[in-house]
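Okay, any thoughts on this one?
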Amino acid sequence: MNQITPPAALPQPAVEAANRVRLGRRGFLSTALAAGGGLALGVSVVPSSRALAAGTPAGTVNTWIVINTDNSISMIVPGAEMGQGIISGLPQILSEELPLDWTKLSTTSAPFGAAYSGPFGQVTGGSFTVRLWFQPMLMAGATVRTLLLQAAATQWGLGSAAGLVAQPNNTVLNPATGLSLTYAALAATAAAIPLPLATAPTLLSAGKPYKNIGARVKRPDLPSKVNGTAIFGIDVRVPGMVFAAVKNATVFGATVATVPAAPAGTLAVVNLGDAVAVVATDTGTAMKAAKSLAVTWTVPAGATAISSSAATSAATKLMAATTGVPVAETLGNLTTSMASATKTLTLSYATPYLAHAAMEVVSCTASVTPTSCEIWAATQAPDWVAGTAAAILGLPTSAIKVNVTLSGGGFGRKIEQDYIAHAVKTAKAMGKPVKVTWSREEDFGHDRYRPMAQSKIVAGINANGDIMGWNNRVVTASVSDAHWPGSVANNLDISALDGALGSSGLVYAMAARKVDYQMLRAGIPVGWWRSVGHSYNCFAVESAIDELALAAGKDPLAYRRQLLAGQPRHLAVLNAAAALAGYSTTPPAGTAYGMALSDGFGSIVALVLQVTQITTTTSTTNATTGVVTTTTKVTPKVLNVWAAIDCGLAVNPDSVEAQVQGGVVMGLSSAMWGNMTFSGGSAGSKNFDTYKLARMRDMPVVTTTIINSGAAIGGVGETMVPPMAPALANAFAKLTGTRKRSLPLYSGG
């Protein structure tokens, strides 16, 4: 159930200076990208030497667009496809300027190479891909179209290409004569035209409503995913390859002390330093042998003391610190403003560590020679992969080829390099191609987890409910510091405060504000997790707003409207979600509403949830005594989710709606049940039997409205995860009268 507003002619989005594009010398495109906070980067976005390759088979890696001899088009897409839809979204943008036959289009993710690098290298994350590549893809389409039109004019002996038209059936038409030529017939001539062009290509879409952007096009990657022919990292097959499974150290930070002999039926056991790889002729044999393999480990001092309880204790001490606390943001005079408050609330919130729990476990295939290395992997960062391999092998990155496969879920886990390093080391030791696959237990037990967080908010309101003062302290690990120790200046990681700072998400009116941060180092490996800092900060902020509304004696919707009076775009999104839900202060009997707002990744989202509790009674009779035992179970249930999103412009509404629904599932799972615990330096949950995700029976009806505001294009993939937790907590607080300030909200299935 979805709707889009407005549904008619889509406006041109506001194009930030960061995304303006110009043609570059011997390059296809280049751009000057200005990042927030005054950071400016000059980046060559598409510096391939040739836009077209006549008669080149699909899969060419040094061009963006390949016109094949059968008149089909192959496009290399910058970024890793993890289900978010960029492998169709970016071609859709390109097709706005280069008319093409969608049924004759094939796409593949870009391999490692400078030609495919953006301002953050080749990393796919942060919901950046469409935002960064929107304008370059428009110009790419315009450039290829211009080359084809000039090629047609040359072949027809015309003085200019004026009046010639590129057609969506992959042909160029001369309306004056009715003659046409296929793109394939023009490719060789087009490829000979010198670049850069003397005159920059004209964007046909400039100043006009889009024709293709905003349409519900069929994603070209879906048929292969349905029929099973799509190649994910775990599907790679290379001639002459063998297979390996990994047994990681039993305690964080431990290293291999002794390597046992290869078990019967296997080929070898390879020492990887922090793990061993068991190599066999098939993955099943390798996994079975690895599971029972007896490895002795060297355990660092204090490693077995790493635990959830120790992390919580350390965080509590940091929360109570009175000196040496880095301040991230101040607004107004907090002391003076708080003195004028008539009510002061002190609210503490906590969120646990979380696993990524992607359906596809991590795997990597590598082939190593003395002078080169080729890798096939579901990775979010092929340039990082090349760097990892180069460092291990002592080779230049130019000798490393990285092929990026489809990914069965990434969520930040597949930016990491542990499984890549394992494959490269194993392939080097074996002297032949090896695919390394982690078991589900290894994937859960040796993740880079979403950090736990504590947040303490002291807020004061006046008689009208206006926020006079807001003091928020956040205690959590720094993912940046965990990956690059010492890289965070003054121990202040602003990225850990996404969604907690006024500059990055807190838009409610308040007279004074202070936000500070304490970096937690608990020995538990942490990593980027879908929506990163927003995932825990939004829970605290939006829960606190509801609690302030209660203290002010106001309905949560009316209270948010009061605080957002100066934020028309945010107010519009909030109102859209409320209207979609038919929100009322008196919900249907036995149910309650909860809501939350989130501003991040360039987009604004609002949720309204409807929840209930289902009571079931079961009776069992003891066969021996005849005694009947009655058990009553109360199960929480989310009935409906009404979501509004303003991402500036929805390139493909179907993809946006799919990401909203996926975010609801992940947000629901993590908020209701997600909790990775640790003891003795090891993870507690090793599979889905003890780490619950939402099942079909848990899934609410999700209704989405998309607001095409014309603002700068925002991200979508991560936006819907953060508001789910506070919306759920707010709804169940209304339903039960009990406020839960710690996640997960429920532990039972």
